[in-house]
Specification:
InterPro entries: Glyco_hydro_28, Pectin_lyas_fold, Pectin_lyase_fold/virulence
GO molecular function, one term: polygalacturonase activity
Strand order of the largest sheet: 1-3-5-7
GO biological process, one term: carbohydrate metabolic process
Main location: secreted
Subcellular location: Secreted, Cell wall
Radius of gyration: 16 Å
Shape: globular
Structural class: mainly beta
């Protein structure tokens, strides 16, 4: 039985020069993805590293960024650079503080401006190159995807 999104590796992807309009969540990585109404939470996940977002501009309706990575298999080396996303306004132009907040869970990487909304700049944790987190990803990959 596969976890929510399956098993394997995603690495070295670049999303650049993208314009969006009224997208719910323009930047998404979700290791908790489930294509059914209910999924049991799994401890294994697809290993994700080297994902770059560069020059993403436009508007969103729910949240600018959602990077939700597994507690056991964090996302590594995620870059958010030159991201300019504004709330589309919704009903009567209302914008909430919550709507401005980027969500990053157990994700490591770097950000580089300009970043709008500013919460994107505080979203990712700093990478610990060669340290505990990268070793943890390697061990998880070896267990999930034996040669």
């Amino acid at each position: 039985m596969y976890p929510q999104g399956g098993l394997g590796v995603v690495k070295n992807l670049t999303f650049s020069n993208i314009q969006v309009k009224d997208v719910k969540v323009p930047i998404v990585i979700d290791q908790y993805y489930c294509d059914k109404s209910k999924c049991k939470n799994q401890t294994r996940a697809v290993s994700i590293s080297g994902v770059k977002y560069n020059n993403i501009v436009g508007s969103f309706t729910v949240q600018p960024v959602r990077i939700a990575c597994s507690n056991n298999v964090p996302c590594m080396d995620v870059d958010l650079m030159d991201i300019r996303l504004r709330p589309s306004g919704g009903i009567r132009g209302l914008q909430t503080h919550q709507q401005q907040q980027a969500l990053c869970w157990n994700s490591y990487g770097k950000t580089q401006g300009p970043l709008v909304p500013s919460s994107i700049g505080y979203c990712l944790r700093k990478s610990n190159i060669g340290g505990y987190y990268s070793q943890k990803v390697s061990r998880s990959y070896d267990k999930i995807c034996p040669s």
